[in-house]
């Protein structure tokens, strides 16, 4: 399919059939293309207007917020700026579960929102309502983000993506047709054994995508396969990695193998894409037109720059307003001006879910980012996963190649005990394959203990 035909003919027709307005979409996108260059003060003004409207709506139409404001003795007009948001408590996943129906806006028609749920990567699924109007706005944001990486509708894109439930969706004719006409190809990230990787490589060579998009670990695995087998192919324009933390060693290999730059993106199911790397490749810019970003620091992370829990206010979701929502991811706010000139907030060091921390017998919390470079450098280890099973037991799963350094066990023991304390029992387990999680994602650090809340 010709790129231009896909973009200018097929896409508007498809949107029309799906009852979405292309005109409205492009108006939003054009506006977002402008607002990304606003200075800090102007961006804050955009947020303040949206915040006030959202709070007014929430107070009037969402029982949870009506009760909350009344209980606190405040009115929406008492919250004028981002700083004033601190007058409101944090919205946790537990609070959403407890107040689920009361968080739904009473003035919204049932066809204006959809029930959705998170993938349960923290061990528990969270139900929520997605505002369909907000979803349209999010799509325009996504497009702006991907344009930074050189994508537009019709650009050939290969996606390594999907959990088993999503893949079933791709099997239906309508979705397959949509993929064909938008020049997209999808590869199932859940099946990435050697045989499948061989098939994927053939498809990749034949399809010649300009953009490769996928789960960070899946793209990394694919790049490793291409590298190992010394396959020749047409170089894409860029690679976009998503859903999982991309470690520097992974970025290095992906960029070398694909011969192009990697753009990391960050989002969560409850809110869509939140942040994306720009062409300066120095952190990820937050879409401040949709999200007010705050951080909560608990004092346990003494790293510099400080890592904190992400707190988000979604300025577009009116069906179920997420005001000061703690999504249980952690990151740090970058203070430096970006070379690209955008003043949108910039974050880095997303450390994955909070469950992806190991907790030492000495009380130390260790993020995956701190331990993975050590494992990545181990000679003879192809893949690894670290699972904290109990407060004093950590299981290290390792997939080794034929030649492995005999001193590997004592050195892993020594390394982990340095972070996690001498009383931590380290179990090493050599296996042939590391199983994927239910969602199809591969997590390098899993803390089962926190998931069980013990
Ligand atoms: Zn930038």
Write structural notes for this entry.
This protein is α/β, with parallel strands linked by helices and 454 residues long. It folds into 2 domains: 1-352, Rossmann fold; 356-451, 2-Layer Sandwich (GMP Synthetase, Chain A, domain 3). Helices cover 36% and strands 23% of the residues. It has helices at 3-17, 22-35, 40-61, 63-72, 93-98, 132-148, 164-170, 173-181, 194-207, 216-228, 248-258, 368-377, 408-420, 448-451, and strands spanning 113-117, 127-131, 157-161, 184-188, 211-215, 238-242, 261-268, 272-277, 284-286, 291-296, 308-314, 325-333, 346-348, 357-359, 365-367, 381-390, 393-400, 425-430, 445-447. The strands form 4 sheets. Strands 4-3-5-6-7-8-9-13-12-11-10 form an 11-stranded mixed beta sheet, sandwiched between helices. Strands 18-17-16-19 form a 4-stranded mixed beta sheet. The protein is globular and about 65 Å long. The mean pLDDT is 87. Zinc ion binds next to loops.
How much helical structure, as a percent, in the residues?
25-40%
Q: Which class of the largest domain in CATH terms?
A: Alpha Beta
Describe the strand arrangement of the main beta sheet, using strand numbers.
4-3-5-6-7-8-9-13-12-11-10
CATH architecture of the largest domain: 3-Layer(aba) Sandwich
Structural class: alpha/beta
Gyration radius over CA: 23 Å
SS elements, strand count: 19
Bound molecules: zinc ion
* Count of separate structural domains: 2
